[in-house]
């Protein structure tokens, strides 16, 4: 099962734990906070691990675009989004951003339908020149987040503007949490 874990940082030493696979983790340096996407054999082991090095933790089970489309459409007949580049290192002229979105309650089902009926071309065009590293959803809350690498803040705002009639968005600049900050 995939989890989104948002936390306040206390230590830069994150112990390795059997049964937890961190797919990627990122920092919001200005707020001394961060988040990761991981899998865990169960939520108990995940909480034990997080409490050893962080506080103020929020853990949420999430699904990727592929699972979300399957649930919303009730079909497996749709293109598959690859998730093999979520921890890509940006080039010198490119930065990383996370956009957290929340569908307006009265527009949530419309938003789900818009998302689930996208074809592969529409999915690519939806990035507005940004490079999507991955998108995850919490369907029960109508929330999610998307990771972009881009050299255009304008393109980030284009994405938020397009989805604006049915959602609210929060854009944050992030860096990869790979020890680079502590060297």
Describe what you observe in this structure.
- Helix content is 24%, strand content 39%.
- By secondary structure, it is of the alpha+beta class.
- The relative contact order is 0.20.
- The model has no long low-confidence stretch (mean pLDDT 90).
- An eight-stranded antiparallel beta barrel has the order 1-3-2-8-5-7-6-4.
- Strand 6 and strand 7 form a beta hairpin.
- It is globular.
Layout of strands and helices, then pairs:
Blueprint: E1 2-9, E2 20-28, E3 33-40, H1 43-51, E4 54-64, H2 65-73, E5 95-103, H3 108-116, H4 120-125, E6 131-138, E7 143-150, H5 153-163, E8 167-176
Antiparallel strand pairs: 1-3, 1-4, 2-3, 2-8, 4-6, 5-7, 5-8, 6-7
Helix pairs in contact: 2-3
Summarize this entry quickly:
24% of the residues lie in helices and 39% in strands. The protein has 183 residues and is α+β, with helices and mostly antiparallel strands.
